[in-house]
Amino acid sequence: MTLTLRGTLGDRDRQLTVSSSDVNWSFADIGQGRESILGSVRTPDAVLVARIRAGDEEALAEAYRSYCAVVFGTARRTTASRAIAEDVLQEVFCALWCHPERFDPERGSLRAYLCGIARRRAIDFMRSDARRVLREERSETSGGALPGPDCEVAHFETAGAVRHALERLPEDQRRVVELAFWGGRTHFEIADELGLPAGTVKSRLRLARAKLVDLLGELVMEPA
Amino acid sequence: MSSPARDPEELFAELRYALDEGYAELPPEHLLDRILNVAYESREPGRPVDRPAPISGADVFARSIASLNATLEDLTEADWKCRALRGLDVQGLLGHLIGVEETFIKVVSGDPSTDSDDHIGSTQPYALAQAGKTPTQSLREWQLVTARSVEVVSTEPPEREVAFYGVALPLAQLLVIRAFEMWVHEEDVRRATDRSLNPPDAEPLSRMAELAVALLPAGIARAGLSLGGQAVRLVLTGPAGGSWTVAMDGRSAPSGAESAIVVVDTAAFCRVVGNRLAQCDTGAWIDGDQQLAADLFTGAAELALD
User: Fold this and answer.
1) Does the N-terminal or the C-terminal CB of chain B have fewer CB atoms within 10 Å?
2) Which ipTM score applies to this complex?
3) CB atoms within 10 A of CB A114
4) Looking at chain A from residue 23 to 42, which residues have their Cβ under 8 Å from any Cβ of chain B?
């Protein structure tokens, strides 16, 4: 597409022709997010990470405020240790700051990316601790990656299976899961959006989680 | 609503961590400062994670000349006659650049007769003179004058202040501005001859963007905007970019005092500075005070020399 633009410099008008192909990538295409540091809308993940790549320290603080609770919760549940979870939390956000290019918004949300790092680092902490305490019991077979969902999920009509499972949840649980999963909201945002206490949102998510483990399988859900 | 992930494993991970919101737990408040400090010690804020190695103003200048030469040497006879800017064909536009370069050499050499601040009018004779020449002659004239420029600046200290068209800057920065203008006009030529537009490499573009950001308050003042006490966080994306708190009145403003955030591709921002792209076509993401952000773009376009 070619556009004709008019600009002004001093007392001179000028008319220029600019092709839209001059701009390789548009942040405007991403749309608005849900909660910002300046208002009520958060910065979309792709923009937030682009800011971090550019060295915007406010963006890292914003990412932390949005996702520290779920990252810390993930680490704490995996390690059962508050102290280790704090170390994991630090590693996760330092990794985001030092290697933001590793996040690919095409492959998932920033929350999933950060929680994935948290979980792997938490497992690393657990393993190193286990090695120290139970060195003899550590077998060769347990030294590799944890059982992953790769093989199992390969047989699923994945998205359809998830949708079908979500449809079988009670309405109040399904709503919060949809907002968290498809909508990418944090539990604080869901509570705000639905006018519910944050604790109610969390308990509904936990109930939904237990039901989805039944419906989709433990390997898929990797229960704590 | 669309799926937040495509791969089955990623989709289930997405669901798993969405459900983990049910177990979210705020960490101790003091961790925020500790974690941010550790992160900033690992990587300096303000600069891109993949920032290029710094290069001198003279190198930026030389690379812009080389890039423009490559474009000019690729032109056909017909391309030289394409209308490019202000009624000038490509050859006439090159004449304008020859005139700018002649003036630049005189200024750097200390010739007191070159006190014009009319960037376009003072070069018009050079532009019009190209009509009687062949493209090969114009190109040769351009290459000779730029070779002289490179030679002249090579003997001058980069910190020496030079006044050029009413703006006094250290020579190193002036060379970046000269390079910027060459790139803008190279894109004029490429646009006029239906060639694709390519931003400069990250090394020179980084210098151009950095200088443009530093000059933004001057552009805002030139636009007649009175924005005392207000600040914008400007984030230029890509390896040549960075992150700045821009005090709209040129005074210092602390990080966190911004009323708007502007996130925009570095080359797109530089095209605004060259007055070749409007804000609405930059693909910028803006949060906060939209008018203040628009004022920033207005000030950016006021920096154009044309």
Assistant:
1) N
2) 0.86
3) 25
4) 23-30, 36-39, 41
